[in-house]
Specification:
binds zinc ion; single chain; 2 domains
Length: about 100
């Protein structure tokens, strides 16, 4: 895998995933969202799907954590902490 991959999330398409109920692959279809609950769920990247095979209905996240998400988070935290440290030192010297 690419060692310079610092993404925390990646796109995920439940259309190609297996149905959690019947285990059939490629049977999930996007459901049209309507109503307040669906719209709130959409903000959190939860989308409604239904299975053409077993009629199962449910919500799936359309993003997933990458394999190296923890490393990416640590990298960003260190970068942010370093930036704060530099700015703090700089300000202390001149104020
Ligand atoms: Zn199914």
């Amino acid at each position: 895998m690419n060692n310079l991959d610092f993404r925390i999330f990646k796109r995920y398409k439940p259309e190609y995933a297996k149905c959690v109920n019947c285990g059939a692959a490629g049977t999930l279809k996007k459901y049209r969202s309507r109503g307040l609950v669906d719209n709130i769920a959409k903000i959190f990247l939860l989308k409604k799907f239904f299975c053409k095979n077993c009629q199962w209905k449910g919500r799936y996240f359309t993003v997933k954590l990458t394999k190296h998400w923890l490393r990416a988070v640590l990298f960003y935290l260190i970068a942010i902490a370093g930036t704060i440290f530099i700015i703090y030192n700089y300000l202390e010297r001149f104020l």
